[in-house]
Amino acid sequence: MCDREKDTNVRLSLPAVCVVWQTAMIILFGVFIRYDHESDAHWVEHRKHLNLTDIENDFYFRYPSFQDVHVMIFVGFGFLMTFLKRYSFGGVGFNFLIAAFGIQWALLMQGWFHSLDYTDGKIKIGIENLINADFCVAGCLIAYGALLGKVSPVQLMVLTLFGITLFAVEEFIILSLIHARDAGGSMVIHTFGAYYGLSISWMLYRPNLHQSSRLQGSVYHSDVFAMIGTLFLWMFWPSFNSAICDHGDGQHRAAINTYLCLASTVLTTVAISSLFQKHGKLDMVHIQNSTLAGGVAAGTAAEFMLMPYGCLIVGFCCGVISTLGYIFLTPFMEKRLKIQDTCGIHNLHAMPGVIGGIVGAVTAASASVEVYGHEGLVNTFDFEGKFKDMVPTTQGGHQAAGLCVALCFGIGGGIIVGAILRLPIWGDPADDDCFDDETYWEDVRICNVKSEVSRLDLNGPLPCFLSFSHWTKMFISYNQ
């Protein structure tokens, strides 16, 4: 199937998928989605009845974090994927497309599991639902990183449809049924999303991808744009990991823990990158990606008493492991395991996500009343209701079980969705057309050449040497 003749014309399929699915969203939102009590016009009555003020509306607590997370999803992830020399439109543009569709589908899927009001059968949404929808989309954007430049926009829409569905189910199992804690999503978001994308990439393996190897790299300006994405993600990751924590000490601690993990990761990433490069020079791939690994690993234990020195240790280890992964594991996986990982999500999200799950399990199992206090232990691990008799050692086991569920859903779901995406109906590019915006975008360079051709009067009195010079400059510009 990889060697079949490719038809990349999505003139009918892409508009059809976008219009039909958006129409479906409108209908489903009309049937199921309503404002929650804090965003409904009846809030005034509710506020007076409970003697509250407008400032106590959850919007004012959560919206700053929502802004940061939203920027990470659309700007951070988008620009991080612009490192390829000829695939910047696809990196940031398709990121925009699948995120915009994904947040709508996520509000429905997560709403049916977490926010359904059984008295009227409606899903009640507020600011926290918007944050969780962004989290849900993040898993699909991570998966896209493994497939960057090798799939069509229609395939990405299908990937997102199934990815959001799988995410909502595994999130419900891990957080509600197993009762694992995962504030920053090391397991639920990063581990699931990474192995989901890697499994799809394995199913869509291209043995002749070397035909596009000339484009599977960066140039100076594309790396600078990607670094913009890195900096946005790095700055706002404390907000990402603390966004849905309980108000108060848990949210405060999550921001501190993530902040320290990220800082430690930068130094070890630079150290390992320099150590393994000739003449001690730095590799921009490592700086763009591995410097973020500490934020991924801090996710599960973000609100736990990890201690500042513990955060630095976690960040230190992630910087080493992630950078070594780019140096040794990525080539090994492509050559031996047939997994072509464009962005290296195995090193940025998969391994740090698993490390984060393990750190969370160990930290939870070792929790004690002396460290947390009785009320703090109950509040941090939500030992209430049917879980009121749970002890920290048992919670540690539940954390480990949650990690296993994320792995199973990511790998199993990716294999199934990958099999669907192998069907010859999605308009995916040929092996020699991968990593090139020209396949699906009206390329600016092509437009410029067309414009110059229309302006150039070849029958006029131009000297031959001027005409030749003009065409030479356009040819060089196009191929840079």
From TrEMBL:
Topology within the bilayer: Multi-pass membrane protein
Keyword entries, A-Z: Ammonia transport, Cell membrane, Glycoprotein, Membrane, Transmembrane, Transmembrane helix, Transport
Protein origin, superkingdom: Eukaryota
Chief site of localization: membrane
Transmembrane segments: 12-33, 87-108, 154-175, 187-205, 225-244, 256-276, 306-329, 350-369, 400-421
The UniProt record lists the keyword Transferase: no
Pfam families assigned: Ammonium_transp
The UniProt record lists the keyword Cytoplasm: no
Segments forming domain Ammonium transporter AmtB-like: 53-428
Compartment(s) of residence: Cell membrane
GO biological process, one term: ammonium homeostasis
SUPFAM superfamilies with a match to the protein in the record: Ammonium transporter (SSF111352)
Gene Ontology CC annotations of this record: plasma membrane
MF annotations from Gene Ontology: ammonium channel activity
Function field: Functions as an ammonia transporter. May play a role in the elimination of ammonia in the gill.
Family label: Belongs to the ammonium transporter (TC 2.A.49) family. Rh subfamily.
Protein's name according to its UniProt entry: Rh family, C glycoprotein b
Naturally occurring in which organism (per UniProt): Oreochromis niloticus
Lineage of the organism: Eukaryota, Metazoa, Chordata, Craniata, Vertebrata
